[in-house]
Amino acid sequence: MAKASEIKVGNILRFNGELVSVTEVLHRTPGKGGAFYLDKFRNIKTGKIVEARLATDEQVEICRVETNDFQYLYEEGDSMVIMDNTTYDQHNIPKALFGPSVKFLKEGMNVIVSFESEEPIMAQAPNHVELEITYSEPAVKGDTSSGALKLATTENGVEIRVPLFVNQGDKIKVDTRTGEYVERVK
């Protein structure tokens, strides 16, 4: 247990029975009455922002979170199997922790996973991945009215919009946070 005055941005707390990440800490000293903290927390599971007013000596529980690099091995039902790069231990991580970037994961890729007392609480795919185009429509000469983009299918079955010059067999870099084409890889 720690006092509210010891909370820092980035800490993981157990607040009202939920795990939250501290996003903002403001110290207020009004003209009358005691000083207090106005804190903003992001719920780790739901992503919802919660605001709280804490007295300076109020007790909060700061959780011990371990974050490490893991290697993604394969998909198993509603979970992803990952392996610790140092101990070779395998863990099942729910797909939901990766969010929408889960569809860009390839076997053998490194991912970042955070554990709080043996329970996975956060997972993050790399910001950019390189994928091969398995199918793309042929470009029609002079068709630039639609922003010069066409649909293409990547090696893991994801359809994304790419520029007209990208062809089947090309490798491209995709931003996993937005799902958008970044550049063609040589």
TrEMBL record:
Query: Where in the numbering of this chain does the Elongation factor P C-terminal domain appear?
Result: 129-184
Gene Ontology terms for molecular function: translation elongation factor activity
Entry similarity comment: Belongs to the elongation factor P family.
Q: One GO cellular component term, please give it.
A: cytosol
Record's protein name: Elongation factor P
Q: Which InterPro entries match?
A: Elong-fact-P_C, NA-bd_OB-fold, Rib_uL2_dom2, Transl_elong_fac_P/YeiP, Transl_elong_KOW-like, Transl_elong_P/YeiP_cen, Transl_elong_P/YeiP_CS, Transl_elongation_fac_P
What HAMAP family does the record point to? EF_P
What SMART domains does the annotation carry? EFP (SM01185), Elong-fact-P_C (SM00841)
